[in-house]
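Data availability (excerpt). The following record was deposited with the supplementary files.
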Amino acid sequence: MSHIESKPQYKQQIISAIDENNAVLLQELLSNEKKANIFLEGGITAIYYAAYKGQSDCVRVLIQKGADPDFCDVDGWSAFFWAAWNGLHDCLPAILSRVANINCIDNQKRTPLYLAAWRGHAQCVKILTEYHANVDSGDYLGKTPLTMAIRENRTQCVKLLLKAGANPNKQDTKGRYPLDIAKERNLSLCEKLVLDAGGINRSLLSERAERREAKCVDIEEYGVEIARCVQYLTCGIAAYVLLYDVNIPNWVISLGAYGIPFAIIVLIGIIKWCAR
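Predicted structure:
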């Protein structure tokens, strides 16, 4: 959508109307779509400035007049980003009706949902998730909206994100889980919410691994003792037969020659299976 330049005096009138959040005056100044898409001082658009200033009424008027909310600054921020950052939930649906991509990202790969969760704007998070924004989109460090909500103890946002299907076990680039963040900051309620959603508990996993390792050691030691007993028993029987010249049927000798090794192999297999 094209944007137009305008005379300095007219620009100043637009800026003043937005500064005062005077939606009536702004509507009078914007007679058509072209005027709604003018560039103001500093190379920004009117709707960008209104969202930056947090003036919801003016944002709605600009949207109604056809203003383009997708214009971005050098950091990749548009009116959509500023609306999420400032918690402008009352004009967010209007913006969403005009944006090209609900999952747009800035220069650090942050989405508007990420910003809303970070700032704790629960109403914005609710609206964005209802519009199916990507709840697991991570920034360049792998931090997700859920991670940021936990970091800032935004419990209502954490609830909304988990309800919308946010992954409670998505790791950042340092390998940390959301639950790790909650534990580091002693955020017991966030910790409970993540655990209830199926979050990985590192301490519990560590305890299970230790118990499993101890179990394996115990089973292996027990198996070694059994194998020794079988060995001693076999040697004892052989010695008894040789010493007393016992007449043993051939089938018993065959059973001992083939059966005992087979029994030992089976025993070793059972031990290894139990130790898994």
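Summary of structural features: Residues 202-244 form the longest helix (43 residues).
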